[in-house]
Specification:
With about 110 residues, this protein is mainly alpha-helical.
Length: about 110
């Protein structure tokens, strides 16, 4: 399976840029094993969301979506930012509306 080009990463390593939007990266302080286990849990939960949707099971869908959220929080992609310098979180913001706008114009 071929995918498009890899998304840009902001110079500070906090975000990926996908279709002009910032998405918080996983916490780089996570150990390799810990990150792998969390990604495995995330993928399993996402599969369960799909199964629940296909079967029309609203309860199972809610539970699976909750597990997706917990895995993303544990990875640092949601919830409080993983950095400690007090910088604001621009997760899910359009890059053009953030301090990364000028960098993005030259990085593309």
């Amino acid at each position: 399976m071929t995918r498009g080009p890899l998304p840009l990463t902001t110079p500070d390593g906090r975000y990926l840029v996908v279709r002009g939007r910032l998405w918080r990266r996983s916490n780089p302080a996570l150990g390799t094993r810990q990150r792998a286990l969390l990604v495995e849990a995330l993928m399993h939960a996402r599969r369960d969301v799909g199964l629940a949707l296909r079967s029309g099971d609203a309860v199972a869908e809610r539970k699976a979506r909750a597990r997706v959220h917990l895995a993303k929080v544990a990875l640092g992609e949601r919830g409080p930012p993983w950095w400690t310098d007090g910088a604001p979180d621009f997760n899910r913001h359009l890059v053009k509306n953030t301090p990364y706008a000028e960098w993005f114009q030259t990085a593309r």
